[in-house]
Specification:
mainly alpha; 0% strand; single chain; globular; 14 helices
């Protein structure tokens, strides 16, 4: 198929306008962040010189001026949050109460559809399985690995090996694992998993077509990526345990198992909570892995992928928006819990 530049010209123009707008906005913000603080610094320096020459006390900066100065730096962030988060969230909530074409109000019908349609109930169950297994398994693997390689001879190399998948995008990791799960009829297999099965005398399978096994295999991809993150955070927490506590426990004759449960786990509890909460939020929003691996087919869809399909593939704006709002509601309690936990740690 030949490429027609004239036909694609409007897309290139839109891309160019977007790049120009991005450069203009970011450049303006960088310029302001460079010029304004420098201006205030020069002004304060002039006041210091004048006060030292005249012998008069340095005038105190008014509280109102400090508030305006802080507001100046917060304004870009508040503006971006309003445009990129608050306004879309309000609009999506309103669309969730409207029909597919966003023309007429339908009340709670879209939310009733979400819990009554068998295919969507399956999506919700899949999401629950993801949220339960991914944080639990990834945190568990990361913790065990961090404990085993702590102070080992090749600790840096061992940590690098498990952390490497974090450098790969979800899409790239999904493509890699699609080759692992690949199926090629009878004979030689290009998929690592099927080749192992054939070598052991078994029959090759189309792994990503068999439900609910395919959902578990997709979860493996997420665990493979996120275990490195859990390992890094928990390893840092383990190294921050005071040495005198460890030495005192060893002098008391505790076993390695008792050391793990009675010393290590209580000491790194805040880090465990941070890792679990972070992975839970990331899992609730998972989209790339499902989209790349199965496109949500064969009973593997989750809320984020189904939201995309309903809104952009099937033209059901109301149903897609209802799924988006429901996903947002699921994330809120986790975020609130994390904020309260961080506040308690700071006060403690």
């Amino acid at each position: 198929m030949e490429f027609d530049f004239a036909e694609e010209q409007p897309k290139f123009l839109m891309l160019m306008y977007g790049l120009i707008a991005f450069v203009a906005v970011v450049g303006s913000l960088l310029l302001l962040l460079d010029v304004v603080p420098a201006w205030f610094a020069r002004r304060r320096e002039a006041q210091l010189v004048a006060a030292s020459v005249s012998g008069t006390p340095l005038p105190r900066r008014p509280k109102r001026g400090e508030g305006l100065f802080a507001l100046f730096f917060l304004l870009p962030t508040l503006l971006l949050l309003t445009v990129g988060l608050v306004v879309p969230a309000i609009r999506t909530t309103l669309l969730s109460f409207m029909d597919a074409g966003s023309n007429d109000w339908v009340g709670l019908r879209n939310y009733g559809w979400m819990f009554s349609d068998s295919s969507i109930v399956r999506v919700l169950i899949n999401t629950l399985v993801w949220v339960v297994l991914v944080p639990l398994v990834a945190t568990g693997f990361g913790l065990i690995y961090a404990v085993l390689v702590d102070k080992a001879r090749f600790e840096a190399v061992a940590k690098s090996l498990i952390f490497l998948p974090m450098a790969i995008s979800f899409v790239g990791a999904s493509i890699i694992w699609k080759f692992v799960y690949a199926y090629r009829g009878e004979g030689d297999q290009i998929g690592l998993l099927n080749q192992i099965v054939v070598s052991l005398g078994g029959e090759p399978k189309q792994w990503l077509l068999e439900s609910p096994l395919n959902t578990l295999l997709l979860i493996v991809i997420m665990v493979w990526i996120q275990a490195g993150f859990a390992m890094v955070v928990l390893s840092a927490a383990i190294k921050s345990i005071p040495g005198d506590i460890v030495e005192a426990a060893r002098l008391d004759g505790v076993s390695p198992w008792q050391m793990f449960w009675q010393i290590t786990i209580p000491s790194i509890r805040p880090a465990l909570i941070v890792v679990a909460v972070t992975l839970t939020i990331a899992t609730l929003k998972v989209f790339d892995i499902v989209r790349t691996s199965t496109n949500g087919n064969y009973d593997t869809s989750v809320i984020a992928s189904e939201m995309y399909n309903q809104a952009f593939r099937y033209g059901q704006n109301g149903q897609g928006s209802a799924l988006a709002v429901f996903l947002f509601i699921l994330v809120i309690p986790v975020v609130i819990y994390q904020i309260r936990n961080l506040r308690q740690q700071r006060e403690g």
